[in-house]
Fold each of these.
Amino acid sequence: MYKWQKMFSLTDKYSHEKTESYWQLQRQNDLVESITKFSQLNTNKAKNVIIFIGDGMSIGTTTAGRVYMGQKLGKNGEEHTTTLDQFPHVGTAKTYSVNKQTPDSAATATAILTGVKTANEVIGMTPATNCTNNQDVETVLEKAAKLGKSTGVVTTTRIQHATPASAYAHIPQRRWFSQVGARSGCKDIAQQLFDKRNDIQVLLGGGRVHMHGATDTDVLDEFGNNVSGDRIGSDQNLIQRWKDAFGDNVTNLYVNNKEELNSVAPETTDYLLGLFAGKEMEYRLSNTPRSQVQPTLPEMVEKAVKILRKNEKGFFLLVEGGMIDKAHHKTLVKYALEEFSEFDKAVQVAKQLTSDDDTLIIATADHGHVFTFGNDGPRGRSFSNVMTNQNQRWNTIGRYFSNTAYGNGPNFNPPAWKIMAGAKRQAESNEYQPLTAIKRAGETHSAEDVIVYASGPMSHLITGVHEQTYIAEVVSHAACLGNNADDLEHCRVSA
Ligand SMILES: [Zn+2]
């Protein structure tokens, strides 16, 4: 008996894969699906557009995330199919920014949402901006709003964070969330968000702290306790001003926690502002009292789509799974994969609530992370598995090595005794941190391409390798947002 045959006999989880007929049927079905897909291209007008951005969702993250989700269902994992895996059209995008090989979320989300690449840390403007020289670039959300579509922004980070802000803000520095530190002449991100209140029907995420003043005593956190914000000056309670800003005929609701969000009736709600955290929302895996009172990303997406889809002119929605990135920066791999799982479930919710006939869904990442997955492991190996190499001496680092790793980050070159003593205990903990190759306080983004998944009208245009700016062009084309819409046949149909 060969070694691999022995290995197979240990489990029957993949015994069905050991026959030729299994793979024959599998690949033939796959081919038939592809032939059907390419013989019936969907050239409808995209009445609705949803862009999902998994912040930092590198290709390694989607693969390890697939295995992680599959293993939670009791499978080996590799053969599992995520919702993203089921998208009919896929391409890749080049993520570099105008000034950096390794980009940040400001530059990349701006590329996706405006069609213009800019410098790191700049949002919705060219790098030549000084706030007064008219360097703003229009976003697809702004274009959609101009055409009378409803729009929305949903995120697990603060709503003023780089990726969500790239849908509605124009600012040279992504950290100017409120007036704190902001250069004069540049309007802070939260203020810009408030000023766009008529155009954005649904806003859900964190970031309460930037929406009210330090002396305001009437703003509550998600537990109902008084909190103070960081806005400077009087009359800076933008939450209260938002509540008061709409007329009697408009139903605008402000919600603070999961329970309040659940009680919102989409049929009768025109505007919804939900701020569920002072800054970022909790990781789903953190399981804190705070995470219990915050809604999940799929829950927020469900409410958003149900409110927005009432508009017969259609809608534009940006959804960010923002905590994938935060977890990777700390090399908390299990947290990152759980956030990926949440992201994938949120995409599934959006797919279920809309139709491929009129809704273009694009799911992508703004940039990757220096995260790797794989280490000569057998089928079904966990992301947190720490392997032993019998060929190495017991006290050398090479004797123990993990199934995931980071190119740089905090867990650099730990002594062998520490890995051995803690390996099993550590690998089983949610806070498991894989080894890193280069020492750094925080792990960095990668410069690699990211995947772009697409379904619905014109989704077949998402194929091949493109600049990230191409995504905005496809959205504009499919949804008839551009100036050339009159010339396009698919744009001449009503609705
Ligand atoms: Zn990041």
Amino acid sequence: MSHYGTDLAFVHDRGFASFSERAAPFLIELLRARGLAGGHVVELGCGGGQLAAALLAAGFEVTAVDHSPAFVALTRRHAPRARVVRASAFGFEPPACDAVLAIGEVLGYTGPGGTSASARRRLFARCARALSDGGLLAFDFATPALARTAGRRHFAEGPGWACLVETRATGRRLERRIVTFRERARGWRREETTHHLELLDPAELTAQLRAAGFAVRRLPGYGSQPMLPGRAALLAVRRRRLKSTSARSKSRP
Ligand SMILES: C[S@@+](CC[C@H](N)C(=O)[O-])C[C@H]1O[C@@H](n2cnc3c(N)ncnc32)[C@H](O)[C@@H]1O
């Protein structure tokens, strides 16, 4: 199931892509500082492809993944040299790579039935297998603190579009009802969708990542892009594999 149809993807692309655009220079510098310049980056939940385009321009190879056909089409337009895959982050098997990025609450999205902790653990294990030693997994997510802001209504607008958002929290679940209006040749088109997000606990995710083979630290933001209230970001570094372990165990009687 995709959370972003054509109009909401358009609205996100026009009105909300600045978050990943502002995060891009920091992420690129982080990769370079860790000796990963020119490496292969897998971006999960690539949205309109703004970060993918910045990574390509900085000399990285990019595989961009999103489960929304509308976003896949936008990424192909904004980042034509990326390998773009339509898939769920939770089912995708990442190729061998140097970094996995999931920017903009990507890993918190669920269906009404939820995404289980075991699905996230499997995702972290797949990333750990795909990443080179010292490779990075960076992502942000909505935390239980965001529930405090639930009940509020927001709106945003730009040329030819407007968007109304209402949130509701139940325990660790956040529901975001989004109404978009988009100007068409014969008037305005109204669409409505509801996103379900799981509010994720940074300490629980940190423990899951450590168990999967990562050293983990919290990021206050992505450089000049601070984390928005009620959100957190983690930087997980793939620990070195012990190369001799399997050879030793094979030679044991
Ligand atoms: C808030 S948008 C962020 C988009 C982009 N990363 C950015 O920062 O502009 C969340 C993105 O995650 C994608 N997404 C959510 N759940 C996903 C999943 N399970 N698999 C793949 N993409 C997912 C959505 O389609 C959307 O592109």
